[in-house]
Amino acid sequence: MSILLTNDTRAIIQGITGRIGSIQAMWMKKYGTNIVAGVTPGNGGTEVERIPVYDDVFETVEKHQANASVIFVPAPFAKDAVLEAIDAGIKLIVCVPEHIPVNDTLIMRSKAQEKGVILIGPNTPGIISPGIGKLGIMPANMFNKGRIGLLSRSGTLSYEVAGYINAAGYGQSTMIGIGGDPIRGADISVYLQQFDEDPDTDIVVLVGEIGGSVEEDAANYAKNMKKPVIAFIAGKNAPEGKKMGHAGAIIDGKQGTVESKVKALKEAGVIVADRIAEIPELINKLYENQNISEIASAKE
Amino acid sequence: MSILLTNDTRAIIQGITGRIGSIQAMWMKKYGTNIVAGVTPGNGGTEVERIPVYDDVFETVEKHQANASVIFVPAPFAKDAVLEAIDAGIKLIVCVPEHIPVNDTLIMRSKAQEKGVILIGPNTPGIISPGIGKLGIMPANMFNKGRIGLLSRSGTLSYEVAGYINAAGYGQSTMIGIGGDPIRGADISVYLQQFDEDPDTDIVVLVGEIGGSVEEDAANYAKNMKKPVIAFIAGKNAPEGKKMGHAGAIIDGKQGTVESKVKALKEAGVIVADRIAEIPELINKLYENQNISEIASAKE
Amino acid sequence: MKLLEHQGKQFLSSWDIPVPRGIVVKTKEKAKEAFHEFNGKAVLKIQVPVGGRGKAGGVKLVNSINDIDEFFAKWQGRDFKSFPVETFLIEEILNIKSEMYISIALNPKAGGLIFIFSREGGVDIEEVAEKTPEKVLKLNLKPTEEYKEYYFRKELRKFGLKGKILTKLSRLAEKLYLNFKKNDLMLVEINPLVIVEKGEIFAADSKIEVDDSGIFRHKQFQEFRELEYITELEKEAQDIGVTYVKLDGDIGIIASGAGLAMETIDLVNAAGYKSANFLETGGGITKELIHRSVHLVTKDKNVRAVIVSLYGGVNPLVEAAKGLVSGKQSLDRDVLIIAKALGNQQEECWKILEEAGIPILKNHRSEDIVEVLKQRLEVAS
Amino acid sequence: MKLLEHQGKQFLSSWDIPVPRGIVVKTKEKAKEAFHEFNGKAVLKIQVPVGGRGKAGGVKLVNSINDIDEFFAKWQGRDFKSFPVETFLIEEILNIKSEMYISIALNPKAGGLIFIFSREGGVDIEEVAEKTPEKVLKLNLKPTEEYKEYYFRKELRKFGLKGKILTKLSRLAEKLYLNFKKNDLMLVEINPLVIVEKGEIFAADSKIEVDDSGIFRHKQFQEFRELEYITELEKEAQDIGVTYVKLDGDIGIIASGAGLAMETIDLVNAAGYKSANFLETGGGITKELIHRSVHLVTKDKNVRAVIVSLYGGVNPLVEAAKGLVSGKQSLDRDVLIIAKALGNQQEECWKILEEAGIPILKNHRSEDIVEVLKQRLEVAS
Description:
By secondary structure, chain A is of the alpha/beta class. Chain A has helices spanning about 20-30, 55-65, 75-90, 100-115, 155-165, 190-195, 215-220, 245-250, 260-265, 280-290, 290-300, and strands at about 10-15, 35-40, 45-50, 50-55, 70, 90-95, 120, 125-130, 135, 145-150, 170-175, 205-210, 230-235, 270-275. The longest helix of chain A is centred in the N-terminal third of the chain and has 14 residues, at about 75-90. Chain C is α+β, with helices and mostly antiparallel strands. Chain C contains 13 helices and 19 strands. In chain C, a hairpin with a 4-residue loop joins β11 and β12 (about 200-205). The mean pLDDT of chain C is about 90. The interface between A and D is large, with 68 and 70 residues.
């Protein structure tokens, strides 16, 4: 199995008739993703890649029992598309567009949490469960089926890390791009919990970067996880993230640097890779040294 | 006893330092109303009529366990004053100002209902429980203590009716001006229920007028009341209320005329007075013909 | 405040809602001039703030200068439902495929707004709603929720709409809804909403009612307020800060509340007289306000007597009494004025009136003031 | 986008928040001219979109023409934290009674906004917050709620404020909050917020950050965008639709993602080289975009080699390859360009690059592209 995107997923594509939406529909379908419908208001009754197109999300839930959606509508309209999906009862939403105003994301996030919806992104490559399907824009040939859960703030860096994992003979149960914007729909802990409970995931690899507090939050959750977590933080030589006025310093204190993240992760028992190239070796060690389920139970 | 405004009421005056607020504070206090504090933001620490003034409602709840408020702030600011009172935990709010935008009233009404607050008005003379106190602008000398519950859409007409009731040797347990605007805080059924359950009210007198559907709503509730209700509808010769476009007709159908109201009330077993002057006689009859509690139990 | 059709369309247009091309004219000559811009046919409509003009011939297809002459002969200088016909709208003819109905209105019953839509619009919409309610979409909208375009789209879809026309309507619905809230409206109604052959939609008529209490926060309506389609006396009343309604009898009525005013009218009429008007003072009475109110209700030369009925809560009765005395004394003709006043400061008030020789009733019985009226009028005649 | 102090104050002022009287100048001569309007004393401040200027002497009380000369001698033509000092603000001196701190900021951690207030403001506010957190009010604001003035009033009261000053601050808080939401801000901060002897409040400084993604719906900021305080190359990057950051080495980096860019920098630096810059392409790559990006990263004459690292998801790798080739061929000097590309259409992309003689790495290992860089540079030298 995999997390979130599973064999039970019945996905729709919002914005399917757009330039990017229609191309990505083709790629997702080609990969075998269970895309049951598309939605573009005003284009109801047409087809894209032999996928039926509807005027609203509610109709796809009524007629196709859709339960997941990937958003390809332009940033200015993304908020309303996500709210429509939430109201229609969709439970997994992948919000791909970048440049969504942060105030819009705040609303999407709040409404999603209120209704128990998992909102991936925005500004995300999406989610892929190799062998099952993908909802998003990641190139499918970057990922192999396997038992490593992969979480990444950066899309392209997740491809890079997956490449190393694949080259070492492993693969991914699911890869999720959590989104590159300062505000995200779902908290990192949601994904960590899913992986921790997934019988087909052995190890979680987290690809972080400087700025924000996602890695610190992940460390906090990882303390109580059964499964081992390997983390890598990009940006040692990146220019320091600009804090926002005095307010930034007052809110964040000393969080956000590579050092603070590495410290928090190590203190939580997370294995921190200094370079991406070390990750396969760290995985090897975890598998060699002992049975993974033993690792898990030892931590319990 | 009385309804809503009782011996347990600990009232504040919002807008106490204004021209009308300060005069009315004097009248209310003179009448013996338990006014525990006043609120005018920016005037905290001062006094009006020896009533301590605070900067916000929350403080009066903390320090004086205030549970009721009468609003005398100008119409443009009334909504926020009411919302503040609701958020602070006030459970009875009397909103006196007229000319409050209807969209503001819609919000006040919704929030009050959400939090179980009884909002009287807006555009109301207020509430008086003779012998206990008054929250509002009605002249106290118009009302006598007694066992008639009085509800009125029109302030001045309620004084008129009270005059007739007093002249006949009766009085009021409580009089409430439900408010003259198209949208009201509390529904008429709330007041009818309170009177029906009040051991010190024998009969309810309802003073209605043409337009809207308050009287129809009252009729609907009165069907299941234990106590007798007498109603009078003003406006037989008033020019027909203008319906709003076709929409008005589509929403209301044939409601809103004196005839439709009288018909609905009579069908619900309400005694309808043709003239105000008839009301004392109708009350007499109810008291003469049988013991009121028998009337009540007979309807049960 | 009700906007005239062409004023309403000005707003619809500013909200990017298509309206037919049209020209507003005041005279026959200007109408003829404008007619040249419409390729030999146009629609001519009287502009009045009240419904029913279509059935009365106030909306007409004109094909010639002759038609325009006829229309103006019928309407210019006339009244429609007591509104003088002063302004006309001449508009292009739409290539009508179908007529729908759409509106957002205040719904007092539900304590919220209501969205109403029907695929069958036009003058008989009430009948459609009554006889085939299943054809009319009525959606209650809660005040604390924020409705999005997709909400209207979802609901409209259930009425068999699809594709382009569906989204055109749902976007229109959202616009009406947002502008209703933003502008403190009581009603925005488009009937008929015309779908033309090419599938575009047009607001062929417009009814917009603005909440008078909300106008203070909308500069755009303050200008319209100046132009509001009301009589001179109503304008004067607005200026004083009171409500004035003309009726057609000879007894003027001033009351400190609408209910009391209505009750007084009912009693005056029941006694065999007829009310000439009523003026409701509202809350903040001043000497000046009552003084001017006395002049206002007596401007109608039919008025031979005035009943003034006041309760003093917020109203300072002493001020009212002074205004009544100065008002009566400054009238240029003799009108019987009788008063009834109770409440705070009632004794001082009575004293002033008695000293000025104005009959004053000191109890709550409006029946008695009508009795006084009767006696005084009989004595006078 | 960060607004300069005087730009921010322009907005504060338009929201009816008092700011000191001030004049913006670009030259010493204009500063001296302006100085005459301030009764012999004023404050002179450099205008840069970054903090810390106060401690560095970038804010100074001037009492004479001499002082102005000195200030300009120190600052004109200089950089502050790599921003050229070009604009100055000369302002009236306030009669300071106390200095407070107030801000609304985005709070990613809580997924909402945060309101921060302290009765002790000024340059040491971080220290106050760290050492005496009880003196700093931090209120998380939920995105779906609407906070009213009374909410801030209630909370501020708990910090010992009362009467006029309390309501002045609560109204200010509400204004900042409403305008934060209305204008798609990320931060609005007033530090110090000055209370003058008479009890009036003034925004003595202003920090406003606008959400770049929200600017499309705010005309008022689109104008500022033109004036944004960024370098020529950053302007060019905005124009292309990419992100460009200058560093101080000699290896240029183009990557199709911020994470990948950072990783590449780390590896380049770990290999003993230094990155000159990085350019992140974002999603919609075109031939033109890559062509111009190649020119942009090589404008810095120190750049002797460029690593281009691309993954093709949304990005059409074929377009990228074409842009890379045309970009390299049109450069006016010889720069080593090496590439790494994987994803949809990778084979076609590789073919184009190979034919143009651009070294292309066909695996995921960024370590290997740095290895290629090393070999090529060693060969070259």
